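Re: weekly structure request thread

Next one in the queue (104 aa):
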Amino acid sequence: MMRSLAILFLLDPAPAPRGHFWRLLRSPSMTAIRKTPGVCAGAACIGDTRIPVWTIVLMSEAGAGLAEILAIYPQMTAADCAAALNYALKHRGEIDTYIAWDRA
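Done, posted below.
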């Protein structure tokens, strides 16, 4: 169900050089992905925000690039997006479950 999210962001015409985001995606992230019972139905969220990882996945699958996501969520950084993508790639089943739940 989930396409390669790394490719979607690498093709984004963001102001940062392409290599910069790729390094963020491949390096350990300082951004914590957290699950808090009672917050966003317990879904994995970016840092202390209420932005679920699956929301970023849906946006990227719909064609939104890094610049667009950061414009919509100005409290996020490129590192936050990289952390969300890393989490999504490692927890595909969980993310797909939340996406299916959202679409139901």
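Residues 5-28+43-103 form a domain with the Arc Repressor Mutant, subunit A fold (CATH 1.10.10.10). Residues 78-90 form the longest helix (13 residues).
Next request, please.
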